[in-house]
Batch of 4 targets.
Target 1
Amino acid sequence: MIKKMGIQWRLRHLMAARDLFQTTDLVPLLAERGIHLSREQVFRLVTQPPQRLSMDTLAALCDILDCTPNDLIEVDVVNTEVRKTAGQPEQTTGPAPAVRRTTIRRPDLP
């Protein structure tokens, strides 16, 4: 059995609970704590779960929102049973990639 882990990023929800409704509201609050991110970076941080997050940024967010990392990140465990048996093809998770013909070009020789 394979245990698949997922997360729910709750930053937007916690911001709304503190009357912070615009992502740009977070930029100066982070800067006060030594975290200098562009408006675009903060927008991505608020609107989608980050793949990587520095501990300094996490600590600053927790300080700003008066919360803990557990309040920001909710871990979901999704149990998916995948058992391989002899003779069964592997299960794929999506459509097969499109086939593209490759052309190899050689430089003209003098």
Target 2
Amino acid sequence: MFSTVCRSLLFLMLVVFVSVGLYQRWDERALFYIKELQANAEVQASSIWLPSYRVTLSDKAIDGLEEGEVSGLTYRPSSNTLFTILGKHTELVELSLTGDVLRRIPVTGLENPEGVEVLSGDLMAIVDERQRTLTIFSLTASTTQVDARQQIQVDLGFPDAGNKGFEGLGWDSRQQRLLLAKERDPRGLFSMPLPSKSGPAQGMQELNIDDVFVRDISSVSFDPRTGHSLMLSDESRVLVELDANFRPRSFISFATGLNGLGWGIKQPEGVAIGADGDIYVISEPNLFYVLSKSDAGDD
């Protein structure tokens, strides 16, 4: 009787493990990991190459942001700083490269901002998931507030997306185009020329990301040094490097105990890559991480 119960429990555990693995696409991740191990030095040198990164700053609380939840992250070369957006009490927050708050700018006219991105010059953009809008505005050292209703606003479509709409936003400086990530159901990655006026989105094209082994997309970031992109997944807890054709090139896991992490990154919401190649990640509730290149191999 005991052995029968044990066998039933083991079988049930196996079914659950396989089901979760298929849901999380662990099989695809494992196959890609084998391919990643075979990459030569030339491939690695032409890539961001995430297996060479380790966490150098972990679980840093962003002081003073208790009232809101961070979402989205972007790097601004002209000031060598980062920007994130708060959702509950909408504010644009400028951060140092070590996660300290430098400036807070109230933003009105939005409902559920999820992604923020530095464009060319002083231009920045915010994507609102609930409104399904892209807002483009100018941000200078003297800017003290932003009213989204007074800026260029583009309707991104997908009226039935609900809370699974556009969440990630990136800027491809090489091709001067926006990268827009739809979270899930279905997930998607789109490119669009920089709009010059308000109205429906024009020239939006869906990119093929069928090979990318993530359940959802939280954030995207473009690396002008390599022409590659970073795609962050909350549900899969991974960061994936995509090549110029948006195929997976490398990845890193944010699971507990890996890549210099203690308890892992449980809800990663934003990613950005700096001029020197350091990678910055924020997670709810308001935690900050830095990943830097290391000579060490995989854990």
Target 3
Amino acid sequence: MTTAHSAPKIPPLVPGGLPLAGHVAALIGGERRLALVEQVRAYGPVVRINVGPNVVVIVNAPELIHEMLTIKADEFTKGRLFEKLKLFGKDALPIAEGKPHLRRRRLMQPAFHREQIAGYVTTMRETVEPYISGWDSGTSLDLKTEMQLMTQGVVMSALFSSNPPREPANTILRSVDTVFTTAIKRAVLPIAPLERLPTRGNRKAKAASSALRTAVADIIAEHRANPGEYDDIVSLLLSARDETGEALPDDEILSECVALLAAGSETTAVTLAWLFHELGRNPDLERRLHEEVDQVLGDDVLTARHLGKLPYTRRLVQETLRLYAPWLVTRQTISEVTLGDYTLPAGTDIIWSAYALHRDPDLYPDPLRFDPDRWLPDRPQPPKGAFIPFGSGKRMCIGDAFAWTEATVITAMVASRWRLMPERGAVKALGAITTHPSELPMIPRPRDR
């Protein structure tokens, strides 16, 4: 591959010296994906790479990412990844564009106001308690799966007033994982013509999407049959009216609920898995967490009033969100756009990576060190736009405050009762729909208090 200088103000192609076996190969493997987005930062604030027959632009500079997500947000669509996530539903809030996105966000915002989220804390606690009380001392846990089931249960309880038993919940979880895996593969590889073929993978993705929608449709049907018994986001959507006074179509309500279920549990679950992995190999940090939780909670059950008294717990969550942020988010230019000194033609596919941004040594001293105290108020803080685990601007994740609260609640509840000990081997970070641990077996041991 050679450097291209033919078009002024358009970033050059990354030269062939990139120490990876081709960019397509890099995007196939989970570890290689992470290496690619980190390594291309060395080539400048904006670079182009070849992905098969396509050219993809990677935006690295925090000020340009901020410009793209805020000031010039209307000049971009959400791009390839979100297009492929339409497997969850084509008009759902995380995927919608333009005015439909704005209308739907305004409609759903009341369910995510901070006052409303404080009211979810009791539901979060009651949903999580059976999971952690059911752990057996000395019996290995697949912690990533356990956290996925836990956070999925929280989303379903708080937003859907539904908490299915473990086995149906496992079925939902496997369906979500399958759809996410399919979406990320289709987003990073130039295989669009293959998506319509009846391959095993395509049939599996279609079946998973169907199973997921069926499970959520049953919840919506229960709400319709007993409209006075619920006060949650499903009932909010069922009672909503559009600008003409018409109710939302059933398929749109279904798509919104499916997308909320998938997006609402993924990032928080992975964050918690990584958090306890880091505590398992940093006993001093774990001890400080236990001390704070014991001092604040004592023998009380956790409530919303305790959360503001857990600053160290919150810093642990924040540092995990920094170090293990989502590795890939996409955008696409609608027309010609200028970012800084670079002019991008209409239709340009763009990637930005919070994972790589958050590990830049120019922004974060000793970036690979897990250090929750870097977020203390008296420490130098990263520049504006350099910490964006939930995105930024008007398309920022609507559930960010929900996720912060949920992660703090679960961290404190687990820490009040258990130590989670690493079982074996090195844990690798993989670029899936978010940044996943390869596997994470951990052994719960009761706290010695």
Target 4
Amino acid sequence: MLIEQLQAAPERFAELAGRHSACSSKEQGGNLGQLSKGQTVPEFEEALALMPIGLATSPVNTRYGFHVVELVHKVEGALLPFAQVRQRIADYLEQKAYRRALSQYLQILISEAVIEGIELDGADSPLLQ
């Protein structure tokens, strides 16, 4: 079992990942880098959230299979004061509104255009949501 081999020789993680992993991370010795919420499937995130730093004692099961995981570093999130994130929230909402308006404008243009050879979703009405 790989976990037993790693418990005996933790320095072999990259070697064993390169040899046994089906994940593209095997090219980096199994290193997934720094992960943030939403970057992996929920079942993997949940396992990482509950896991202490170190080698997992059992494989993590996800929809993609079983994973041998070593958690090297963990940084807990912190609630930030509104004043500190206000501008980021405003920028995000502005960009979201811009993308939605652009999408709606393109739908109107598509519905008014004669386009052959490709099927595009146009607007059924000038009133969009």
